[in-house]
Amino acid sequence: MGSCLTCFKSPPNATVNSVEAIAGVVAGPETAITDTEATVNETDDLLAASPIRLTSLGSERKSGSFKKTIGLLNGNINALPDGGSLPGKDLATQISDNDLNKLFEEYKDGQEDAILSEGIERLCCDLGYKPDDFAILVLAWRLDASQMCQFTKSEFIQGLQQMNAASIDDIKLRLEQMVEKLKTDSEDFKLLYRFTFRFGLEPGHRILSLDMAISLWRLVFTVHTPDILPRWLHFLEQHQNIRGVPKDTWNMFLNFVETCDITQYDDTEAWPSLFDDFVEYEQERLKQASSKNLEGGGVDGTEGVETSVRVPEDDNNNS
């Protein structure tokens, strides 16, 4: 089946222009980062419990696109997408096991008892999506998929039971509902965001490669892009020597985009060192761009000023 990590592989030192297909293997081997290469003190917690505010690079803060909804999932991935809930037994009995097994058989691999890359591509086509669409990431989340390029039988059947979906039309409708809900529900989005890190990990590894992290950040923020995201991704793309992104750095980035103010950034706070380097890079870039009266369009992204960047041995020491 190959390494699923290569689904998001991009050429070294190249700008990542689009997320590669979740279901396809399209590039060469990736340098793996194993547990022995980094000590990671992980946490699943995000710092802020309040709804996310997506702010700009400047000192003036903007309200984000999230608004708090009445029905919060409180960490329950199996809650219904419309914010309601039903007892698990009642929900499961609405779905015929025979229907779910037949649907699984339509897409399963000929050799393994799972839906693999080819089957996922056909499933995406039948749903009317491309494999790299945001809705397919949402589907993987709702199925609680353990890794890319694969839906196990238990993940597929149990996930569809929780979604109350037994056909392609059912799945399509549920995905449309969930994507709409994610545009406004910060609690749901936090669950999806945390899942995305785990989903992108290569089996047996604990930190994302830089290329993978860039691709997944771009994908997960599809429905509402923080103002700071293009600058952050540009910074990462210009510094391919960064070894990888651990879970704490991934999780804390959601808090970073909520509170970040480049002009008043406090580097004594407990942010990962990579965030300190990014702010220093941005401040210097904005300073030089201002002195040149914005000639050449440097502020908009492509003429950034290079500064030295520390390659953190372990971002979690500062988180």
- Name the poorly predicted regions: 1-41, 47-93, 298-319
Write the H/E string, N to C: HHEHHEHHHEHHEHH
Characterize the overall form: elongated
> Which band does the percent of strand residues land in?
under 5%
Number of helices: 11
Please outline the major beta sheet: 2 strands, antiparallel
Count of β-strands: 4
Secondary-structure-based class equals mainly alpha
Q: How far is the N terminus from the C terminus?
A: 36 Å
Trace the largest sheet across and list its strands.
1-2
Overall mean pLDDT stands at 73
Helix content: 40-55%
User: Radius of gyration over alpha carbons?
Assistant: 21 Å
Descriptive notes:
This protein is mainly α. It is elongated and about 65 Å long. Helices cover 41% and strands 3% of the residues. Residues 1-41, 47-93 and 298-319 have low confidence and may be disordered. The longest helix has 19 residues, at 273-291. Helix 2 (97-107) crosses helix 5, helix 7 (186-200) runs antiparallel to helix 8 and helix 8 runs antiparallel to helix 9 (229-237). Strands 1-2 form a two-stranded antiparallel ribbon. A two-stranded antiparallel ribbon has the order 3-4. The protein has helices at 88-93, 97-107, 117-127, 134-142, 153-163, 168-182, 186-200, 210-220, 229-237, 247-259, 273-291, and strands at residues 114-115, 151-152, 207-208, 245-246. The protein has eleven helices and four strands, in the order H-H-E-H-H-E-H-H-H-E-H-H-E-H-H.
